[in-house]
Amino acid sequence: MNLETRVGLIAALVLSLGLLAAGDAFAAKPSCGDNKCSGGETVASCPEDCSDEPPPEDVCNDGICGPSESFESCPADCDAPQCNNDGVCNAGEDCLSCGDCAGRTGGKPKNRYCCGADTCDASRCGADCGAAVPECGNGIVEYGEECDDGGVSETCDLFCNAVAVTPAVPLNQFNIGDSIGEAEAANGTIGAANHQAVWSTGYDGGDIVNSLNERFEARDSAGYFENNSLRDGAINQAVSGAVMADFATQAQAVVDSMGSINPGAADMVTLLLGNNDVCASSLAAMTDPVLFEQQYRAGLDVLAASPMPETVNVLVSGIPAIYWLWDAKRSNLWCRLFAWPFVPCENLLDGAADDCASSASAEDPDNIYPGDGSSCVRRKQFHAAIRDVYNPILSGVLAEYQAGNQLLNAEYVDIYDVRFSSEHVNGGDCFHPSKAGHALMSGQQWCRSSWGEGDMACSP
To answer: How far apart are CA 406 and CA 313, in angstroms?
Structure first.
């Protein structure tokens, strides 16, 4: 093919494309009477298609919920977003309009999600997301019901009787504690605090710890004043190394911050202290139980004397079974030889090798077996002291304050039977809970408290 022929073909191709384009333009040419006011048509040239009347404005109280109206701007015309506050993210509900649905609309894009609107990510929102709203009394057992007898059991709860009243979500939350309250070494770095990962007031939406703070935020995103990196200095008063003697000081710092964080709000205080009182150089060096109780009462007195004692929610955590921290890492050479000699809990960690009479004995800290070595016996005595002396003080004294109408909204949460496995203990100092450990503690504290009542995630 010579050059002239090629040029001719190219010219023909360009011409044909131009004609096609022109043809499209011709086909799209407007004409009066096509119900489209376009192509230069005006009211004068084509009144059939064009009108000089503006679209009607939305008028509140006309019975029509127009495009620019909402329940907030015109409740007379528009229905409120569906939300029955049953703790289940039902069809029609979402995290923007209903506290029943979890969600996070801010932060990094990869962490944003909103449960509900009938489209749910089961890995984040749970299998109940978008479920139909159960109707109690219709004689049909539906989602969230174990019975429905047609009206005799009006609550239709899991036990077919009256449901315990879940307390209202507090409007903010404070933390009192020791190194666990600072999430020390949760990321494996020895001595480093990780406040964002604390089981109670943690605020990192991208980690595996679903803290109490984040659970309250999910339950009442509009009303709850959640903790974050800017507020944490006032909210988390935990100090690494703190003992029960420090309770009153931390409690006073909390009281001083109440009202300044969110004026007039009902506050919640989580307390986990006592670990360093029992983690001593010897069994005899533990804090004297009588003194321990006096120091505990001094801290409770500070909270009871706060400006709003009737609205303060106090969640006192029992001392966990620290024995399992040793059991979880006792086979790790690094932990036994290089980490534990520097951890001040000789009651548990001295003679770190297992000298129990048998593996069955090592797995049974509640009983001393014939043939148990001295370190094994000491660890079990340490375990028994937490169980039989210190935790009963925490629960018994709090019950007195409750009975005396001093801290009406206080409750004790027993987590003594929670067992820490290797993944729940960080690999740096081999002693403090890892992020997985804080996630475990948060879940157990939540489900064993009144806050977990009715939470389907807490069902066995």
So the answer is: 12
